[in-house]
Write a structure and sequence with these properties.
The complex is a heterodimer of chains A (318) and B (296). With 318 residues, chain A is mostly helical. Chain A is 80% helix and 0% strand. The longest helix of chain A is centred in the middle third of the chain and has 36 residues. Chain B has 296 residues and is mainly alpha-helical. In chain B, 70% of the residues lie in helices and 0% in strands. Chain B is built from 13 helices and no strands. The chains are: A mainly alpha (318), B mainly alpha (296). At the A-B interface, α1, α7, α8, α9 and α12 of A face α5, α6, α10 and α13 of B.
């Protein structure tokens, strides 16, 4: 197991390198833009300095590779630079926003699984019945409904017909945990519904495969109750690919969270990114971009490592 | 040498179109229906200018915020613009973006997939790590960042989406190439001294057509969905172009509380089209390339 973890960590190094290059080059494609923007806005500190001086202060006058090396070097010291507009450290802004998005994403995954697992299992044990057919159509439909539309409808329809509308101002978890959860529940449910579609299909496929195995027939033949066979024998074995899928969905969760935050006015990474994009605040854009990529890599690493816990065969083999 | 044994499960050659369409309708009625819906949508998009009863940006203050009626089947918005006409033109934008970006994505996937899958070795190893890194960024985040750098507009969106989905999809093509590459006819071609390019063009490419077709179909839906998400955030094709995502955001959103039909029409259009392409893509995959089942 240790060798496996080590190998997995080593494989991460080139991926991390490429990821940092992607982040760096994408964001710096047009470095002049932010200067123009700062000068065109009547920002006092910017208008007094001339162009070259500003570029020097921001370190934008040096060649690309040198900028990259400086950037990576400071990253290792936990320094992502300052916001170009507020001159607060990027790490500080990220630390404020990251837990909010994390909470939203985690809730969405949990809700997604609570929808997907029971329906997926039901669909598999009642294969080709009307119930299975309805469940499958439902899941393809969920796959097609854009989450931003679902989110918009959830905001618009109840407010017209029931006079209910979601909280406008954000309630932080530390202030009022229950109020916060209540506020997060609706966007998380919308996001979870979208996620559950794929998981549902995967659970069904894997369950069908496992249910055809010999040991399931043995368990059934010796007269174990169906419930026991399904949950103890079949589901546990069908779960591994489903867990992988949850890991693969991490980018989807984060992308969806951006939209949900926008619709429901939640101050997470998504709103931070969109605000930064509108202001061309490159250090913040870079920071969000990098943290999101890192988060996805860490999640996938954890998913890989969790195989050992779920499946004793992986532990022994490696 | 294991390479001499032709691997089982080699992909079937692309079937003849007429017989294939008959099989599609017989075995996969839902998928066939999806294909028909997609064709209708394509038709609406191509002939949007002829089909629309009003101009897409024709402002008519007297008719503002009307609920659906015979004159305006989808209602009108806050400026009295006909929603049906706007949705039809939205279909046009979606068709253009969907087909071009999906084509670009497929070409990128095929080029990267064939190069890495056939050449293998260090080149493959390095490229795969790059693809790993690329795939750990959520597509919406990359799109937002790129649009923030290049500014919103149709060419940027098509280019980015094509590149984005193309790199991600290269894995599927690569695995198809790897399984075809060990076939006897490829070894035969190599041993009579065919050039690499000739082998790729004449032997590999025709045999990976099924996954390529399936990939293209599923990409159309993905592109339409991604573009609408971007337009919804105000970073897509800039207004007054009536993209479906754009219709659901901006001024549309403010007036939805007075006219819920403003939210209904574009959302339903999107859902129906994406649903249709999904079931059509699934049916194609089941018929053409069973190995891909469950990969999405």
């Amino acid at each position: 197991m240790q060798a496996y973890i080590l190998r997995r960590l080593l494989a991460l190094i080139p991926t991390l390198f490429f990821a940092s290059v992607i982040v760096f080059t994408t964001v710096r494609l047009i470095p002049g833009d932010v200067i123009d923007l700062m000068l065109s806005q009547n920002d006092i500190s910017a208008s007094k300095m001339d162009r070259e001086a500003l570029m020097e202060v921001l370190g934008l006058d040096k060649p690309m590779w040198s900028q990259y090396l400086t950037w990576v070097g400071s990253l290792f010291q936990g320094d992502m630079g300052n916001s170009l507009w507020q001159s607060t450290p990027v790490t500080e802004r990220l630390a404020e926003r990251l837990p909010v998005t994390f909470e939203l994403g985690l809730l969405a995954i949990l809700i997604g699984l609570t929808i997907a697992l029971p329906i997926g299992v039901y669909s598999a044990i009642r294969q080709d019945t009307a119930g299975d057919y309805i469940a499958r159509s439902f899941s393809i439909l969920l796959l097609a409904v854009p989450s931003f539309w679902l989110g918009t409808m959830v905001v618009v329809i109840p407010s017209i017909y029931f006079g209910w509308s979601p909280e406008v101002s954000y309630i932080s978890f530390s202030e009022d945990p229950i109020g916060n959860l209540k506020q997060m529940l609706v966007p998380a449910a919308v996001l979870g519904a979208a996620l559950s579609a794929v998981t549902m299909r995967m659970t069904r496929t894997m369950m069908l495969e496992v249910l055809r195995q010999d040991y399931i027939r043995t368990a059934m033949a010796k007269g174990l109750p169906e419930r026991l066979v399904v949950f103890r024998h079949a589901l546990r074995n069908a779960l591994i690919p489903v867990v992988t899928l949850v890991g693969l969905q991490a980018p989807l969760v984060i992308g969806g969270a951006v939209i949900m935050e926008q619709i429901f006015g939640i101050p997470g990474m998504g709103t931070l990114l969109l605000d930064a994009v509108n202001q061309r605040d490159y250090p913040i854009i870079t920071g969000v971009f990098l943290v999101v990529g890192l988060a996805v890599m860490v999640i996938n690493l954890l998913v890989d490592l969790s195989y050992g816990l779920l499946d004793p065969r992986v532990r022994v083999r490696s | 040498m294991s390479a001499v044994i032709a691997p089982a499960g080699a992909p079937p050659a692309a079937p003849k179109p007429a017989g294939f369409i008959r099989r599609l309708f017989r075995d996969k009625p839902l998928g066939a229906a999806g294909g028909v819906v997609f064709l209708v949508f394509l038709f609406c998009g191509i002939f949007a200018d002829v089909l629309s009863p009003y101009g897409m940006n024709e402002i008519n203050p007297l008719d503002r915020l009307q609920s659906p009626s015979w004159a305006h089947p989808f209602g009108t918005d806050n400026l009295g613009r006909d929603m049906l006409s706007r949705c039809l033109h939205g279909a046009q934008l979606s068709v253009i973006i969907g087909l071009t970006a999906a084509s670009l994505a497929t070409i990128v996937s095929v080029v990267i997939g064939i190069a890495t899958g056939y050449l293998g070795g260090k080149f493959d190893l390095v490229t795969q790590r790059f693809v790993d890194a690329w795939m750990s960024f959520p597509e919406l985040i990359i799109l937002i960042v790129v649009v923030s750098v290049l500014g919103p507009g149709m060419p940027q969106i098509i280019g980015t989406l094509g590149l984005l989905l193309g790199i991600a999809g290269s894995r599927i093509i690569r695995s198809a190439v790897v399984s075809v590459r060990e076939n006897m006819y490829v070894h035969a071609a190599q041993s009579i001294g065919s050039g690499t390019f000739r082998i790729l063009w004449r032997h590999i490419l025709p045999n990976i057509m099924p996954p390529i077709i399936v990939l293209f179909t599923t990409r159309v839906g993905a592109v339409i969905l991604a573009e609408s998400g971007l337009s919804f955030l105000g970073l897509g094709v800039p207004p007054p172009a009536p993209t479906w995502g754009g219709l659901l955001s901006g001024s549309g959103r403010t007036y939805m509380f007075q006219g819920p039909w403003l939210a209904l029409a574009p959302g339903l259009c999107l859902t129906v089209v994406v649903y249709a392409t999904n079931v059509f893509g699934d049916a194609l995959r089941d018929l053409l390339d069973p190995r891909l089942r469950g990969s999405r």
